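User: Here's a structure from my thesis project, written as structure tokens. My advisor, Dr. K., wants to see whether a designed sequence matches the one we expressed. Can you design one independently, without my sequence as a hint?
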């Protein structure tokens, strides 16, 4: 009985998705671009300020238009985050880079603003973002010598620079859909504010580290049933 009910539900769902009226509300696409990232560090013992680092972001998305002015989008991206610092010690310039990579899932609620007789549709969006850490590395360069090690290999209070594996944040931004062919070119700018203290190093619990990330993305959106 359960198998028959499941089959019936699946059949009804497929039939519903196959109706032209519904598929016209669906779209999917790919995006990629650059991002500027930094780490917000709150250390009670000293002021810490790092420089932004340049990285890459790219992935795919699926969207449902629930109303002429409202769209719900589901996206998955590979995102590079981190920060860097340059310092001069005894006349020697040294650069240190903190490089983090995440598989990030985002669900932005989107306000679409159609313009009559125009191929351009502005968008405003906001929503949650959850990142799963793929890697954490520290790179450095001084006197022409470069190093690149995993964060856990760095000795801090007898342990490595450990970071939490999940980073939760909130994103908001805006973009444009520019109609082209059966779809649209997408141009987005978004800011992702990390809410999770990703610091998990032993003996440094009073130091808070949070991600900050600005993405500049371009891509193409395919409309189903167009």
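Assistant: Designed independently from the structure alone:
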């Amino acid at each position: 009985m359960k198998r028959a009910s499941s089959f019936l539900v699946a059949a009804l769902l497929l039939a519903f998705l196959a109706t032209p009226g519904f598929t016209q509300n669906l779209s999917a696409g790919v995006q990629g671009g650059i991002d500027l990232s930094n780490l917000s560090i709150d250390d009670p013992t000293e002021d810490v300020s790092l420089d932004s680092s340049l990285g890459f972001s790219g992935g795919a998305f699926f969207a449902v238009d629930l109303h002429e002015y409202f769209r719900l989008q589901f996206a998955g991206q590979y995102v590079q985050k981190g920060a860097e610092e340059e310092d001069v010690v005894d006349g020697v310039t040294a650069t240190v880079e903190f490089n983090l990579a995440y598989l990030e899932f985002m669900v932005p609620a989107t306000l679409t603003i159609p313009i009559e007789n125009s191929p351009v549709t502005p968008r405003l969006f906001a929503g949650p973002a959850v990142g799963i850490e793929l890697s954490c590395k520290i790179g450095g360069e001084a006197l022409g010598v470069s190093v690149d090690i995993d964060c856990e290999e760095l000795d801090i209070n007898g342990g490595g620079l450990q970071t939490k594996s999940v980073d939760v944040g909130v994103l908001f931004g805006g973009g444009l859909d520019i109609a082209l062919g059966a779809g649209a070119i997408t141009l987005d700018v978004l800011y992702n504010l990390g809410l999770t203290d990703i610091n998990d190093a032993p003996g440094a619990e009073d130091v808070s580290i949070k991600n900050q990330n600005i993405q500049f993305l371009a891509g193409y959106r395919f409309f189903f049933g167009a």
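When you compare it with your expressed construct, this may help: Helices lie at 2-18, 20-23.
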